[in-house]
Specification:
- Helices cover 15% and strands 39% of the residues.
- The chain has helices spanning 2-26, 78-87, 208-213; strands at 31-38, 41-43, 47-49, 51-59, 68-71, 97-98, 102-105, 110-117, 120-125, 142-148, 163-168, 171-174, 181-189, 195-202, 226-235, 240-247, 252-256, 274-278.
- A hairpin with a 2-residue loop joins strand 1 (31-38) and strand 2.
- It is globular, with a radius of gyration of 22 Å.
């Protein structure tokens, strides 16, 4: 009897191990992809799998760059997007879907965002303006990307976050204060409009208003009083994404949404969607 029970226990353990290994083999790992930004182009993959992707942006250029993923409707192409942007530079076409992407990084820096993509045609684009106020996309900084179907996409969010940031019309809410160190932040858009979060480390003594004023048309030449350190590009209402950033004790940071309002084209930051905080 003892021998029978022992054999049965071994068989059960082996069965459980086999089931665990099978589950691990069936559950795909999150897909990793890197895009390299220069003036004014992206180098990176032409295709991505549907589901969760961790997208890294490496800024090898001499200017600020970011990477926004825009999903095109089935009846639109990148040429249609270019035509729409030329016709009305201040108002993105309403037929676009916003799926996030890596935030803004200075030359020589890199960072990643984790986003969920559906099957279809996308454009990876940088819309940061140059010194004359012309968006980098207008210089050709746009790359078509096709998202293809996969047999077994990751069903649940695959990232463990330290805290949650909620975007609304027009403010940021943190589940808890940001402390020093590296944090992975889950971003959810609970607003009625598309929103982003740009994270900026402010220069000593500068405010978020000082940083934004440096981008005004009549601003004096020179770098802004702060350094972007990433964030998550624009996502549609109800969508989520993740980013990781390093925060230093005693430093002051700002959260900013530069995305324009759908009706007026006024940046959300000008409507109060900014938040300044000091890390303890």
């Amino acid at each position: 009897m003892y021998r029978y029970c022992k054999q049965l226990i071994v068989l059960i353990l082996m069965l459980l191990l086999a089931l665990a290994l099978s589950a691990c083999q069936q559950q795909p790992e999150i897909h990793e992809a890197t895009f390299v930004a220069t003036e004014y182009t992206f180098e990176g993959p032409d295709t991505l799998p549907a589901g969760w992707n961790r997208i890294t942006l490496q800024n090898d250029g001499t200017e600020l760059h970011h990477g926004q993923l825009l999903k095109l409707p089935s009846d639109k192409t990148m040429d249609d997007l270019i035509a729409a942007m030329q016709e009305n530079p201040d108002h993105p076409p309403k037929w676009l879907s916003y799926d996030g992407g890596p935030g803004v990084f200075v030359p020589g820096e890199s960072g990643a965002a984790t986003v969920k993509l559906e099957e279809g045609n996308y454009v990876f684009v940088c819309v940061i303006p140059d010194a004359e106020g012309v968006p980098h996309a207008a210089h050709g900084m746009m790359k078509p990307v096709t998202v293809t179907a996969v047999d077994n996409p990751i069903a649940e969010e695959p990232v463990e976050a330290d805290l949650t940031m909620t975007l609304a019309d027009y403010n940021f809410t943190l589940s808890e204060p940001i402390t020093s160190g590296s944090h992975t932040i889950r971003v959810e858009n609970a607003g009625s409009e598309a929103h982003e979060v740009a994270v900026v480390k402010l220069a000593p003594g500068a405010t978020v208003q000082d940083f934004m004023a440096a981008f005004a048309p009549d601003a004096p030449p020179g770098p802004p009083p702060g350094q972007p350190i990433g964030g998550l590009q624009v996502i549609d209402p109800g969508e989520t994404g993740y980013f990781t950033a390093e925060f230093e004790s005693g430093e002051t940071y700002a959260l900013i949404c530069f995305h324009p309002a759908e009706d007026s084209g006024v940046p959300h930051a000008a409507m109060g969607m900014v938040q300044e905080f000091t890390v303890n």
